[in-house]
Amino acid sequence: MSLEQDVATARQALEALDRACASVTKHVGETVDARRLRGDLSRVRDDLDLMAGQQSYSAYEPFAGVYGDGDDEGFGGAGRTGR
Length: 83
Description:
With 83 residues, the protein is mainly α. Helix content is 55%, strand content 0%. The longest helix is centred in the N-terminal third of the chain and has 26 residues, at 3-28.
């Protein structure tokens, strides 16, 4: 099978798992575990997108250009000295 076919098969299985998990969460309600399960399913979807070569929306970092080097220019930034 090709990558595209394998990813499509994995997505179908994930959708089936999502439906099954939705049935279970109806019994337990809106709990921390139910929210974590939805988050896990979302991360698997994102991972499949990445493996298939598609851009994942959750991988987008809106401030990457602003804070590209990770240096905090506030108090204690690189090259700062006390007065």
